[in-house]
Design goal:
binds pyridoxal-5'-phosphate; 14 helices; alpha/beta; 16 strands; seven-stranded mixed beta sheet
């Protein structure tokens, strides 16, 4: 059957089988902008989102009573599985003993030490979102280097950080399509190069005006685009050579292991940011500094009455509830052993998809980073964000998502990404393989 006809059929099924979600979606238009609590929820593939009733472990139930295996896992924020028992216990105890105090708790010290053990950076600060961690890292890099710009890779995503909503058009830096209300032309704040293009990187850094490079160690928001052999060495060498700080954003690539890609591959960033899953979805993020950067910052930053007006922080950042969640999550949920299991499931997921693609002779491929797996509708692995973007297929994305959703599987929008949690089972992975195979059979 053609993809268009299949999509039509699946849309009808979705609408028929989700009357309560449909009703709530219609009602939501009366109180929520565009009928959703957050802008990109309008993009779920069925025309309206399913409304969740309850989520536990690797599963959730919607208001129409359907049970789903969740491979989206809150786009990584619930990579721990939903509401893991140790985090729920710690947060329940803490919530009765204070939520936010503007004072440090002992949990903050424990978490700082644990993050150092995992990632190798010497000192830490906390925020509520990875977006904020990135924003603060950029400000600090500017302050340290007295340089105005940052450099990012084309098709990156680092949260809603103004400087990063950029694209490259005919070699020029432009505002990315869909960027809402940019404060200044992006070329004023940002240099952009393609991922894996070390020469372009060196050329752009040679201008001497880049405070920091902000990079995921592998792109994960435009499919997974892995670094080529030697690229990280060139990146580190070039940033050191240009006296530009290197900020590695591990928010998604934590999927590579307990200390993210940084620990798994021996990276040496000057700053590191991480958010989403470290508190099992309770809002928290961390940003860390190498010993050298920490020393320079301590010497530079105001330690007097000006310390709270520097554009870094937040009244409820580093609150005691977030840090109790982070301590429990790191100590008892996202453990070394959990990662071993999650990565093995990622391998199983990858093998299932890869065999299906091969059996049906489809011009697609699958890529994995730790416990994160993604399939893309082009035959070769992309080298750059642009190549990955060109391999996107909105129709197939939507169809596969909806096809899976109608059969009890939630994939990550708006590409085809799956994440394994400590609660995901082999049977969950095999269910996806069967459904993916069914979709492939109908398409070919
Ligand atoms: C790599 C990366 N960094 C940062 C963020 C921002 O996270 P948040 O939206 O929780 O602030 C995201 C969100 O998807 C991300 O993928």
């Amino acid at each position: 059957m053609s993809a268009e006809a299949l999509l039509e059929r699946e849309l009808e099924r979705f609408e028929r089988e989700n009357p309560r979600s449909h009703e709530l979606a219609n009602e939501a238009r009366g109180s929520l902008l565009s009928g959703v609590p957050m802008p990109w929820m309008i993009r779920w593939p069925g025309g309206f989102p399913v409304f969740a009733a309850e989520a536990h472990g690797a599963r959730f139930r919607d208001v129409d009573g359907h049970e789903y295996v969740d491979f989206c896992l809150g786009d990584t924020a619930a990579m721990t599985g939903h509401s893991p028992e140790p985090t729920v216990r710690a947060v329940s105890e803490q919530v009765a003993k204070g939520i936010t105090t503007m004072l440090p708790s002992e949990d903050a010290l424990w978490v700082g030490r644990e993050l150092t053990r995992r990632f190798g950076l010497a000192r830490w600060q906390f925020a509520l979102t990875a977006t904020d961690a990135n924003r603060f890292a950029i400000r600090l890099a500017r302050e340290l280097t007295k340089r105005p710009k940052i450099l990012v890779f084309n098709w990156c995503y680092h949260g809603s950080v103004d400087e990063t909503f950029v694209g490259l058009k005919d070699g020029r830096v432009v505002s990315r399509e869909g960027n809402v209300g940019p404060p200044v032309p992006l070329a004023e704040t940002t240099r952009v190069v393609e991922w894996n293009d070390a020469e372009a990187l060196e050329r752009e850094l040679a201008h001497g005006d880049v405070a920091c490079v902000l990079a995921e160690p592998a792109l994960t928001n435009i499919g997974i685009v892995l670094p080529e052999r030697g690229f990280h060495d060139r990146l580190r060498g070039a940033t050191r050579g240009a006296e530009t700080l290197l900020v590695i954003d591990e928010t998604h690539t934590l999927c590579a292991g307990p200390g993210g890609y940084t620990a798994a591959h021996g990276l040496e960033p000057d700053l590191l940011t991480v958010g989403k899953s470290i508190g099992a979805g309770i809002p928290v993020a961390a940003y860390g500094f190498s010993g050298g950067v920490a020393e320079r910052l301590e010497a530079l930053l105001p330690a007097d009455e000006k310390a709270d007006v520097g554009g870094i922080g937040g009244t409820v950042a580093a609150n005691v509830l977030s840090l109790s969640a982070t301590r429990a999550t790191l100590a008892e949920v996202l453990t070394d052993e959990a990662f071993e299991r999650m990565i093995a499931l990622g391998e199983r997921f990858e093998a299932g998809v890869s065999e299906t693609i091969e059996r049906h002779g489809l011009p697609w491929h699958v890529t994995r980073l730790g416990c994160r797996v993604e399939y893309l509708f082009r035959p070769e692995r992309p080298r750059t964000g642009s190549e990955a973007a060109a391999g996107g297929n909105a129709l197939l994305d939507r169809l596969i998502h909806l096809y899976a959703l109608n059969r009890g599987i939630l994939l990550t929008p708006f590409h085809n990404m799956a994440l394994m949690s400590p609660d995901t089972t082999e049977a969950d992975v095999d269910l996806h393989t069967r459904v993916f195979d069914e979709a492939a059979s109908e398409l070919t």
